[in-house]
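Fold this sequence, please.
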Amino acid sequence: MYSERPARLTGAVVWQQPHSGPHPVLPDGCMDLVWTPGRLLVAGPDTRAHTGGEGARYAGVRFAPGTAPALLGVPAHEVRDQRVELADLWGAAVARRLAERIDAAADPAAALEELVLRTAAGAPDPPDPVLERIVRHLDSGQTVSAAARAVGLGARQLHRRSLHAFGYGPKTLARVLRLQRALALVRRGVPFTAAALAAGCADQAHLAREMRELAGTTLTAYTASRP
């Protein structure tokens, strides 16, 4: 069964998925470093639902939006909607050695977390606090223009920095965060219409369209698939 817990890296989450069937992974604005036996992958930011692997064992660290590029050394837009071998980013020898170390660990998720903590400690630059503020503003339901004004960035500057940090422009990030807010309410049993309005959608039909476009499913099918 899938499980997750807060990581020791600020804003990150450590998760595990034992052997299972295929499952949808919905856009959430995040990037992940993923281990599966013998491999390390970087999961880029998604703009559409991605189907998780079948039958394999997985563990991962999910980074807060905008924080992974500085740690992993790749602009988010270069891996958007992709799963990329860490070997392609850090070199085959380094990636193989790290994967073998995690393979041998009694707790691969904890070993992966240690790798991330060491990487963060050696990163040349900390996450950009301006981008952290952008995420907070958008996740609170503010418009992109209001968020840009709040951090003192022009529209072009914000778009350029968003591509590097989030993998797409701020409008797409706002849509993804809004959908996630709505789904969090739906999972708590809030009716669709109330969840849509509370998350910042115009109405339930608006949320339904976003669900189809970003998640590739319907609200009814999503709730039916939840355990």
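The CA atoms of residues 28 and 180 lie 7 Å apart. DSSP finds eleven helices and eight strands in the chain.
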